[in-house]
Specification:
Oligomer: single chain
CATH architecture of the domain at 68-160: Sandwich
Radius of gyration: 35 Å
Strand content: 35-45%
Number of strands: 45
CATH class of the domain at 68-160: Mainly Beta
């Protein structure tokens, strides 16, 4: 006797998920075509798992997508739900359609829809066909379409002409969208101005946002721009290192929409404030645009200090073209924008008077003292044989002759208009995007963007040359969406952004030093100029104008995967995100070619001190090691949009982040140990320590202090961020919603923190304070530095002559903690003896560096016994 039957066992949600992933029951034999599809699904799954495995190998991730979602509930005239209804959602511009069926509770959900305008069609036997078009879907938006079907034949179509929902009624997130139409028609400034914010300007129209002067990013509800505001372009992070996102942006012609999430973002988002830019894609219709803007000096007002309006001609032009490659299947879109400017800018300089250049100060009403005799020069005229040849060469190169005002005018006596630009007004950029529906299950799109913005200007003196600045912003993205089943959709996305801001003086500083005849400087080949401060003429200080040599080529790579799974009234979404940051920066202070200060302490007049070649102080630095910062971060998230009923939707989720701090490729970062008072550097950073750095400040390695060896920072490994919110519609329409949410969000603090960890013991300058004793200066042109005080491998023990003098002599070492010279360390010698006034914990540098740093011999023998002789009373 043969027994037959079956046993019904409950199936877990996980089993159902993987069953849907495979596309069939595990026990049923598949036909060849289905087996091929199943193999393809397994390949996709392997790809997902492969990238997920990267999380174990890498350690800020900003996962988010640019897709939208359409959901709703289908009911009959009595209000009962209609299960099994066929729902077709069609993009009205590309005619690409997606089909799903309503669940047992009459709920449907169509995720991963491109930004655009959609039509919803619902059919089921016994009811008329429901259609509603004109649904405008934005990035990360959920549109709810509740449909009530009428009894009748399926061939009868009920067309609903209601407007697209104006507010989001399905999630707790707060967002504001500006479309391409808004960008073009709102009467706001969109030219490339000084901050070059471009279309990011429109973010400031959103409630809760404000502008700051140092970045193109908005402050959103008080969230700090450098640590908690994230701009993305087609779902890929584009934050430029410390400089905002403005260089990485498409042309206005290529922007589909700008979406600003201001509050309560779901677990998919890393930070509390998000800025999403979505680019245009092609459609079935061939369409294009072209534009041209002109501005000229005839339309502008003159500068208050100028006799006429500076010459300027500005042309901004571009266009776009998009359409089908193959209708209903493949589409393209491309745009190009450029601008050209010919302009002149007014420069106002305080230049030395012609008679001053020859040593004639007879027009001054106070005496010019001779430091060699401590008496005034006869007639206030310096003899020609006393004028330094170095000073003569410097004034011929640095200072033009006065050309404005009456003779004897000292302030603003040189004025001239120079060719240049008024901002980033000479640029080229293009964007290109292709969307392709490979099959009913697969769709891909890719985009590349390229942008270059050169800038030339003269902001100090015209005789040295102009500053050249080039900014680059490039990006690319690739997205692949695979539909395993109507209820299970996966998207993998990867992208890269590249930003570079490089500016430099178009002169080689070592060539100037050689031309002047200054000795004691070994740095060569850098585009920069020395700092020359002479009272009362215009200072030559490119550090002060932030125009010293700077270059920061930086790249961000990102890989992200998002899975959407619809299970009844639950719309589950989960995924991962991995980012690799490579942030580089080279800043070279002008002090590598020396700083020369002539305030007039020796003769009573700065320019007279300069002609004699006797600076009060000089400064000298060596180039700081470039910042080669690296970080890899990852995140996982899981969230659920639970449609409790037609009025109430819950949003809850959990996000885990492995937000790793940055490390330096060469170890040139530092921290501080409050227990010992020592600076801490990575072990591999020993060779990068600046020999000018004061040796009385203890410096130890990370391994000796117990700090993390590369980043010097501990960070949280189990950083879980819960999110919860709800959206409640009190009425039976889409016009009113009550929303609330709570969440814990991460920030991007390590990005800005890493930059602040540069400098310290890896940068610095030596400052030499001059004195005149018995008519002889401690130093002067052409040797304005006490080279024995800073030469590696020798003992730094510098002091002035023992005889009394009107001033004092010293060597002061400055410690730069950022990109500008900072604090100093100086030991003072008393009157009774000349023992250095050292800190209690001071140890000779030879012992300290040998035992702690274990560095090269040249570094280990540097001492910091800086003696200062004060004048005896």
């Amino acid at each position: 006797m043969r027994l037959g039957g079956s046993l019904a066992l409950p199936i877990s949600p996980a089993s159902q998920f993987f069953s849907e992933l495979q596309g069939s029951s595990l026990s049923r034999r598949l036909p060849t075509k289905r087996r091929i599809e199943m193999c393809h699904s397994k390949v996709v799954l392997c790809v997902i798992l492969f990238f997920a495995s990267l999380n174990s190998l890498v350690s800020r991730a900003y996962c988010q997508t640019t897709f939208g979602q359409i959901t709703g509930t289908v009911t009959d005239p009595s209000g009962a739900v209609v299960p099994g209804a066929k729902v077709t959602v069609t993009n009205q511009e590309t005619l690409i359609a997606r089909e799903v069926s309503t669940s047992a509770r009459g709920v449907f959900n169509v995720p991963n829809l491109n930004v655009g305008t959609y039509r919803v069609r619902i059919t089921v036997t016994g009811f008329t066909t429901y259609e509603r078009g004109g649904l405008i879907l934005s990035a990360n938006q959920v549109i709810n379409v509740d449909a009530t079907l009428a009894l009748g034949a399926t061939e009868t179509v009920t067309e609903v002409t209601a407007a697209s929902p104006a507010i989001n009624t399905e999630t707790s997130a707060l967002a504001d969208v500006k479309t391409n139409r808004d960008l073009e028609q709102l009467p706001l400034e969109m030219t490339r101005h000084l901050a070059d914010k471009g279309f990011y300007t429109y973010a400031f129209l959103t409630t809760g946002t404000s502008s700051v002067t140092t970045t193109s990013l908005p402050v959103i509800n008080g969230v700090r721009t450098q640590s908690g505001t994230l701009p993305t372009m087609d779902g890929i992070a584009v934050t430029a290192y410390q400089g905002g996102a403005s260089p990485v942006q498409p042309s206005f012609e290529g922007v589909q929409e700008v979406n600003v999430v201001t509050g309560n973002p779901t677990a998919e988002f890393a930070v509390a404030a998000n800025f999403t830019v979505v680019t245009k894609s092609g459609t079935n219709d061939l369409h294009g645009t072209a534009f041209y803007n002109y501005n000229g000096n005839a339309l502008n007002a003159r500068n208050f200090f100028s006799d006429s309006t500076p010459f300027r001609v500005y042309n901004n032009f571009g266009g776009s073209l998009g359409g089908p490659i193959k209708k209903n299947k493949a589409f393209f879109f491309a745009d190009y924008e450029a601008s050209r400017e010919s302009a002149r800018n007014l420069m106002v300089v305080d230049s030395p008077l012609p008679q001053w250049r020859n040593g004639d100060f007879s027009s001054l009403d106070f005496p010019i003292m001779d430091p060699s005799t401590n008496r005034s020069f006869l007639g206030n005229i310096i003899p020609p044989n006393r004028i330094s040849p170095v000073s003569q060469k410097m004034q011929d190169v640095l200072f033009p002759l006065p050309n404005f005002g009456p003779p004897g005018l000292e302030s603003g006596n040189f004025r001239q208009q120079f060719r240049g630009t008024t901002g980033f007004t000479r640029f080229n950029q293009f964007d290109a995007r292709v969307d392709y529906k490979v099959s009913e299950r697969d769709a891909i799109f890719g985009r590349v963007s390229w942008r270059r913005m050169p800038l030339d200007y003269t902001d100090l003196v015209p005789t040295i040359g102009q500053v050249t600045q080039n900014r680059y912003g490039h990006s690319a993205v690739f997205s692949w969406t695979h539909t395993f089943s109507p209820t299970l959709v996966n998207e993998f996305r990867t992208g890269v952004t590249y930003h570079r801001n490089r500016y430099y003086l178009d002169v080689i500083g070592s060539d100037l030093i050689q031309q002047f005849g200054i000795q004691g400087i070994t740095t060569a080949g850098i585009h920069n100029a020395p700092i020359v401060r002479i009272d009362p003429v215009t200072y030559i200080d490119y550090d002060d104008f932030d125009d010293s040599y700077f270059d920061n080529p930086s790249t961000t790579f990102e890989w992200t995967d998002n899975v959407n799974w619809t299970r009844g009234r639950h719309f589950v979404k989960f995924g991962f995100d991995t980012i690799r940051d490579r942030l580089n920066e080279t800043f070279t202070t002008s002090l590598v070619y020396g700083g020369y200060n002539f305030p007039g302490v020796f003769t009573g007049f700065g320019y007279a001190d300069f002609l004699l070649g006797i600076p009060e102080t000089t400064e000298l630095a060596i180039p700081t090691p470039p910042r080669y910062l690296r970080s890899t971060s990852a995140a996982l998230y899981l969230q659920d949009q639970f449609k409790v009923n037609r009025k109430l939707t819950l949003n809850y989720g959990l996000r885990w982040e492995l937000t790793a701090p940055f490390n330096h490729k060469l170890g040139a970062i530092y921290s501080f140990d409050p227990q010992t008072g020592a600076l801490v550097i990575p072990d591999k950073g020993v060779s990068q320590v600046n020999p000018f750095f004061p040796s009385n400040i203890p410096v130890v390695t990370a391994s000796q202090s117990g700090f993390p060896k590369d980043s010097l920072l501990d960070f949280r490994k189990g950083y879980f961020q819960p999110r919860f919110g709800f959206a409640y519609k009190p009425f039976d329409n889409e016009k009113t919603v009550i929303r609330a949410g709570y969440g814990i969000y991460g920030n991007l603090v390590y990005r800005s923190m890493a930059r602040d960890m540069g400098g310290g013991p890896f940068s610095g300058s030596a400052t030499y304070i001059n004195s005149v004793t018995n008519g002889v200066p401690l130093f002067s042109f052409p040797e304005p530095f006490l080279s024995s005080a800073v030469a590696p491998g020798e003992t730094q023990n510098v002091q002035g002559p023992a005889d009394e003098g009107p001033l004092y002599a010293a060597v002061e070492l400055n410690r730069r903690t950022g990109s500008r010279p900072g604090g100093s360390s100086r030991f003072v010698c008393g009157d009774a003896d000349c023992e250095p006034d050292l800190p209690a914990q001071f140890e000779p540098a030879a012992t300290q560096h040998d035992s702690v740093l274990n560095g090269p011999p040249a570094l280990s023998s540097v001492r910091s016994d800086h003696l200062v002789r004060k004048r005896r009373q």
